[in-house]
Amino acid sequence: MDDPSRLAEVVRAARSFYAIAERDCYEPATPGIPEAERRIAEAAAELAFRLDLAEAAEDLPVVLGKRTRAIRRAFTAIVARFGWLAIVEPDRDSWIADRWERFDSEVVIPYLRAVRAWFEDPDSDPPAGLSFAYQEAIRRDLSPATLSAEQAAAVVPSLRMRAGEGVVFADRWPEAGPHEYQALLDAIRAADLVCLAAAESEAPEPAPLGPPVSCTQGVEQESPKALAVAAPPHEANPFPKLSPPGKALAAAYDLKREGRPVSIKAATERAGVNRSHLIKRYPEAVRLIKALGTPDGRVPRGSKDRQTGTIEAANDDED
Description:
By secondary structure, the protein is mainly alpha-helical. 60% of the residues lie in helices and 2% in strands.
């Protein structure tokens, strides 16, 4: 798997984790909070695995590495709030399985066995709402608890609450603040731009049509100069399906691949994008292009115009 593909897999896993965690933190879905918590844990484990895989790549390009680390920082801040830092460790799958098994044996199974004892007591009349739990106990071949109908009726409500609303992986429900989720979403969006530009820059060139067929007999030939004038310029619209920041980033990757100097000016001219508009509306794209043009990958230092408020990079003379 090449480097852009690794980052794309990280972005895909990060989007899945964000969608599940941010939604289920406020709207836990049936069959209950523990199942919702398990979905979050599994999505978190997948993202942690994809991050490890991307960061293990040798000679990871600077921009891809920066985007990967930004997602890692935002993700780690969220799971730290959850109390789930073990999820970023290599044995994360065992951590999830062990805690889920403990919850099942200590909470779920006693609840199902008590429900079955209640249903199978000939003198009992359990609520119809417990039918699903009774069928689940039968499906799992769990023996009924040694409880009378009265005893089962006394313990089932509390066991049901624990089984349906208890927390599994820590001592509290996994919650994080809106700013933490926003930081992850921002990191995902920035990585999306890089992936999009990388995909466009690595797209294969169209196959040549083959040698021209001579059909000049009886036809007046056009001069080479006329043909050159009629040909559309290469820079006219090289990235027709991309947004302005995507076009500029794709052009910057093309320049980098060709060994040419990368600058905001060169990238926007090749992409056919308005440079002032890009600088004003898409600062993240501008920063990424500057990083591509900096030999060590660092964003160049700069100065701020006190009259206009414009920030200019110190080594952007060509811009």
